[in-house]
Amino acid sequence: MVKLQQDRAVKTREAIVRGAAEVFDQYGYNGASVNRIMRRAGVSQGAMYFHFKSKEELARAVMNAQPDTIVPRLDSDGLQRIVDMTFVWAWQIQRDVLLRAGVRLTNEQDGTGMHDASPYVDWARILETSLTQAQDEGQVNESVNVRQFAELLVSACTGMQMFAKAVSGRQDLPDRVVAMWRILLPGVAPARIAASINLDVRRFA
Fold this sequence. Notes:
By secondary structure, this protein is mainly alpha-helical. It contains 10 helices and no strands. Residues 33-52 bind DNA.
């Protein structure tokens, strides 16, 4: 009985977060209302406030769910894993409303009352961990400061998706990510490693 209640609570929370992502993606933070989110998620007011005490708390949950839409889809390691992480991101942001809403909320915090850098910091930490492992394995040059490189990747991808959204609705984002790596790889990896990295972004389409 307890297990059934726990499973139901998990499913309800997931439905609320998914419904909120759809509303935030469509209307932004300021245009979204708790009532609209409840209707989209198909939950009662009691269920909503049992899981989330405010719209801001719900927005933070959507923002911080971004890695969950990407990391489980990865099966590579080393430097290839880092490249693949950006490739999966480039495709998923076009298809996954949870990721897309999280990115929108993270980038549009001005005027919302939220000042939360944790999504950027979390991504940088995930990348730094993988980069450190790749460097220990000789796949990233010793001269590379992995923390700075991780933060550079987060900054570059943030700006790149905004640029791609403006010029193509993000349709050309995967190709832009490939172009970024063609520029970066020769400077951060030994030549033999750089040459071995699979840059076929279409395999994640």
